[in-house]
Amino acid sequence: MGKCERPLNGVKTMQNEFKQVDICYKYDGSFYGMLSCVFEAFLKKEIPIQVLSGDDACLFGFKYIETDEEKAKRILKAVLAKINSTALEYVKLSFLASIQGKEIALIHLLKDGFSKGSRFIELIRTGFTPVKSVVVGGVKNEHIKKLEKGISLLTLEAQRFIQFVRFSEVDGALVSIIEPEHNVLPLLADHFVSRFPNEKFLIYDKTHGLGLLYVDKEIKIETIESFELPKFSQEEKNYQKLWRLFYNTIAIQERKNERCRMNFMPKKYWKNMTEFMAD
Predict the structure, then answer these.
(1) 102-116 vs 31-44: helix axis angle to the nearest 10?
(2) Is residue 11 a part of any domain in this protein?
(3) Is residue 144 domain-resident?
(4) Do 117 and 174 fall within a single domain?
(5) Considering all CA atoms of the chain, what is the largest pairwise distance in Å, rounded to the nearest integer?
(6) What integer pLDDT is reported at residue 275 of this predicted model?
(7) Residue ending a domain, choose from 157, 189, 221
(8) Is residue 14 part of a domain?
C-alpha cells in the first residue's frame, strides 16, 4: 500500500495509488473546469489518458466533468496550503499557455507537489520574463518540462504584444485586434491599464474569441464570438498615414536587414500593426 498523504480538503490521496485509466475527461475549457478535472482525478485516484475541451475527438470512452467552482477553489486552496504561492502561480500560467496535454501534466505536477510540500517548487520566474529556472523537487520530469516550456512561450509572447499592440481610435475608444497563440490577455491587462488609465479600450483576441475591456476604470475579459473593426474616421486614417510616414522616414535603407527585423518583430504580427497596413 502506498504512502498515505494528508487529505486534500476532504479528498484522501495515496501517492502510489493513482492508476492510469483508458478514459478521457471532457470539460468546458474554463479555468475552473480544468481544476474540476484535477479534483475528479484526485477523488478517483486516477490519471485519465486524455483531458479534452471543446469538440476534440477522443478514441476512448469519456466522461464529462461538470465545472464546479467550489471544487476548483478547494484545489487552489490546497495548492497554496500544501505547496506554496509559487506553485499557485504556476497552475494559473499553465492554464493560459497553449500546451497540448497540459491538464495531464498538471495532475502529475500536483500529485508530486502535494507529496513533497513547500520545497517542491522553489524558484520560477514569471511576469514578462520567460522562465529561466525552475526547481521542482530537484528533478525536472517530462511533465514539468512540458509546463515550463509552455509558460516560457506564454510569457515571451505577452512581452512581444506589449511592444506590438497597435490601437486605433473608434468612436472615442481605443481598439486593437491581436492573434496570439497563447491566452495572453490576462498578462497584458495591468500594462495597458497603467499606460492608458483614463481611456476606454478593447483588445480583441481573435484566436481565442476573447476581449480585454477597460471601461469606467473596470477591467473585464469576456467572450466575444466575432468582431470586425468599423470603418475608421478620416482623422484616424490621417493619424495612421502619419505613423506609417514616420516609420518609413526614420528607416535607414542602406542598413535594411529583413532577417534581423523578423528576429525582433516576427512576421506573424505584421498584419495587425499599423506600420505594415496599406494606405
Answers:
(1) 60
(2) no
(3) yes
(4) no
(5) 74
(6) 65
(7) 157
(8) no
Provide the domain limits for residue 184: 165-276
Task: Please report which confidence band the pLDDT of residue 129 belongs to, taking 50, 70 and 90 as the band edges.
Answer: low
As for how many domains the chain has, the answer is: 2
DSSP 146-194: HHHHHHHHHHHHHHHHHHH---EEETTEEEEEE--SS--HHHHHHHHHH
Cell 469538440, residue? 55
* pLDDT tens digits along 170-211: 888 899 999 999 999 999 999 999 999 999 999 999 999 999
- For 73-107, letters b (16+ CB in 10 Å) and e give ebbbebbeebbbebbbbbbebbbbbebeebbbbbb
First to last CA, the chain: 71
Please give the Cα distance from 133 to 156 (Å, whole number).
15
Q: How many CB atoms lie within 10 A of CB 171?
A: 8
DSSP at 2? P
Task: Note whether residue 42 is domain-resident.
Answer: yes
167 torsion bin: left (phi>0), alpha (psi -120 to 50), beta (else): beta
Same domain for 187 and 148, yes or no, is: no
CA nearest to 37, candidates 132, 106, 83, 112? 106
pLDDT tens-digit map of 147-176? 888 998 999 999 999 999 999 888 888 999
- State the Cα–Cα distance between residues 121 and 124, nearest whole angstrom: 8
Is residue 135 located within the same domain as residue 192? no
| Same-domain check for residues 85 and 173 | no
